[in-house]
Amino acid sequence: MAQQAPKGTKDVLPDNIYKWKFVEDAFRTLCAQRGFSEIRTPVFEYTQLFSRSVGDSTDIVEKQMYSFDDYDGRSLTLRPEGTAPVARAFLEHKLYAAPPPYKYAYEIACYRHERPQKGRQREFHQFGVEYFGSADMLADAEVIALAADFFTALGAAGDLALRINSVGCSVCRGGHREALRAFLLPRYDALCDTCKGRFDKNPLRILDCKSPVCGELVRGAPQMLDYLCDDCKSDFEALKRNLDALGLAFAVDAGIVRGLDYYTKTAFEFVSAGIGAQGTVCGGGRYDRLIEDLGGPPMPGVGFGLGIERLLLLMETAGAAIPPPPGADAYIAFWGEAAKLAGLALLRRLRAAGLRAEMDGPAQSLKGQMKRADRLGARYTIMIGEDELAENAVLLKDMISGEQRRVAQDGVLGALAAR
């Protein structure tokens, strides 16, 4: 077992890392363009942060968190999601002292003890954004548009559908909660044990249960949309108008409740039918009371989390092009000890000039070194032997045309620049 990665984790090997770098660079560029500043938070937090914000009746807190006591007996938890840590950092460092709005972006690893599945492991990675300080539905539309434009930029938008819902607020949830309990009461005995525990504490969570049995039992359940207060109803209509103005197609899906207790009003998902049963690639929504619940000032917020593993799976399914990493600019081949030393000096000059240059240490035949240059995708090969040393020159070979010519050692950089 010591020779294997833990269950639910995966290595990202060198022949795949360029795909990750590609989407990471694209996300950072898009977020910077739209005024979202990068933020980084610790990989673990005090457990109370998540039980207080995510909700102690959620699957995450009840079943999935990796929690442990440190040497001082304090309970810590590996980060299961990104919004609560960013909210904690926002409060701890009093970032709200500057004028609003406050826009943050991040890339993180998260940890949940759940059954590994296609595109989702126990260690998984997310892009995320948080937008604090605006109660206007324009902020919701901007966050949703950022995700949509990111998918489009990557060539992965074709199979995606945007679904939106409103999960209401503390004013209007009471009526829906009681109607939901009344609907579920005759079905109570058939609910899974987890949902029985949620019946009194938070029946809305039952709608998010992944059990097929519970999924059937909640068919026809009262919808939150029918119980929205005037304020929530007005905001939901404003969101739809904003999305229409942005040219973003969407469908209202009353079944979206998200898996976290801090959501209010807007809830949304980008879903693909092409990557398996768990097709949500990006999900988010509004959380107007989270900062206040954590002890801060009244501060509305909205954001999303976007799974990187699922994104890469989506891009593969969609046939989206990811450019391979560039090959070496130059490879230095040599034969003989003196030529090796001259090659090392030249290698350092090439790298100092910003070129991707390679040279292998173990002595190989010239044929073996040329094969190595091919494997590296080298644009040019620089060959140094006894004759070249005697003339203080090198042989410069164009690996595409096959053209080969002698160049003075101190003229190699100029020759490469000219080509």
Describe the structure.
This protein has 419 residues and is α+β, with helices and mostly antiparallel strands. The protein is 37% helix and 21% strand. It has two domains: 17-172 and 228-318, Bira Bifunctional Protein, Domain 2 (BirA Bifunctional Protein, domain 2), CATH 3.30.930; 330-418, Anticodon-binding domain (Rossmann fold), CATH 3.40.50.800. It has helices at 17-33, 47-53, 59-64, 83-92, 137-153, 173-184, 193-201, 212-217, 230-245, 290-293, 308-318, 337-352, 366-375, 386-390, 412-418, and strands at 37-38, 44-46, 67-69, 75-78, 102-111, 123-132, 160-166, 251-252, 264-272, 280-286, 301-307, 330-334, 357-358, 380-384, 393-398, 404-408. The strands form three sheets. Strands 1-5-6-11-10-9-7-8 form an eight-stranded mixed beta sheet. Strands 13-12-14-15-16 form a five-stranded mixed beta sheet, sandwiched between helices. Strands 2-4-3 form a three-stranded antiparallel beta sheet.
In brief, what are we looking at here?
With 419 residues, the protein is an alpha+beta fold. 37% of the residues lie in helices and 21% in strands. The protein folds into two domains: 247 residues, BirA Bifunctional Protein, domain 2; 89 residues, Rossmann fold.
Q: How are the SSEs placed, and which strands pair?
A:
Layout: H1 17-33, E1 37-38, E2 44-46, H2 47-53, H3 59-64, E3 67-69, E4 75-78, H4 83-92, E5 102-111, E6 123-132, H5 137-153, E7 160-166, H6 173-184, H7 193-201, H8 212-217, H9 230-245, E8 251-252, E9 264-272, E10 280-286, H10 290-293, E11 301-307, H11 308-318, E12 330-334, H12 337-352, E13 357-358, H13 366-375, E14 380-384, H14 386-390, E15 393-398, E16 404-408, H15 412-418
Parallel strand pairs: 1-5, 7-8, 12-13, 12-14
Antiparallel strand pairs: 2-4, 3-4, 5-6, 6-11, 7-9, 9-10, 10-11, 14-15, 15-16
